[in-house]
Amino acid sequence: MREDLHLNKRRFLHLKNLVENYTRTQRHLEEYSQLLPYEKIQQVFQKQRRREEQINNIQKAILKEHDKETEVRNLVKNYLYTEGYLQHYKEKLPKHILNNILKRQHYRKIQLENLIKEADDE
User: Fold this and answer.
1) Cβ–Cβ under 8 Å, residues 90 and 98
2) Would you call 69 helix, strand, or coil by DSSP?
3) What are residue 66's phi and psi, to 5 degrees?
4) Which top-level group of life is the source organism from (predicted)?
5) Would you say 26 and 48 are in contact if contact means Cβ atoms under 8 Å apart?
6) 64: left (phi > 0), else alpha (psi -120 to 50), else beta?
7) Rounded to an integer, what distance in angstroms lies between the CA atom of residue 23 and that of residue 57?
8) In the predicted model, what is the mean pLDDT of residues 65-69?
9) How many angstroms separate the most distant Cα atoms in the chain?
10) 86 with 115: CB under 8 angstroms?
11) C-alpha torsion angle, residues 50, 54, 56, 61 (rounded to 10)
12) Which phi and psi angles does 79 have, rounded to 5°?
């Protein structure tokens, strides 16, 4: 029970940060979209869509409506895509970016193992 409260507290903080970033970016888009090149605006829209997805996922997780199957599918997809990316660009990436990607891959693997373990326990 205490662990769930701690986890939800972290989720709320993350949700708050996401909503603040989303709102700030939306306001900047409204103010400066005429000054930005088309490619930059498209990047911002993609980032905003990712934030919307994250906000929805966190809301579902807090409300215990999260679909484990979809989460596992997305984790596997992201893991595999990132592995392919690393195979092609590993030598070209700066060391700090490579370390961040490898760290994310490690956490994805741990999260996937935990989800599979939870599914086996049920």
Assistant:
1) yes
2) helix
3) -75, 135
4) Bacteria
5) yes
6) left
7) 18
8) 66
9) 54
10) no
11) 160
12) -65, -45
Question: Taking the domains of the chain in order of start, what are their residue ranges?
Answer: 1-65, 67-121
Q: What is the mean pLDDT of residues 5-19?
A: 85
> Which tokens is 88 given?
């092609």
Mean pLDDT of the chain, nearest integer? 86
Yes or no: say if 48 and 4 are a contact pair by the CB < 8 Å rule.
no
Termini Cα distance of the chain: 18
> Position of tokens 């392919």?
84
60 closest CA partner among 119, 52, 6: 52
Question: Mapped to the 3 state alphabet, what secondary structure does 16-54 carry?
Answer: HHHHHHHHHHHHHHHHHCCCCCHHHHHHHHHHHHHHHHH
pLDDT at residue 5 in the model: 73
Q: How many residues does the chain have?
A: 122
Contacts of 105 (CB under 8 A, 6+ apart): 79, 82, 83, 86
Residue 52 has pLDDT above 60, yes or no: yes
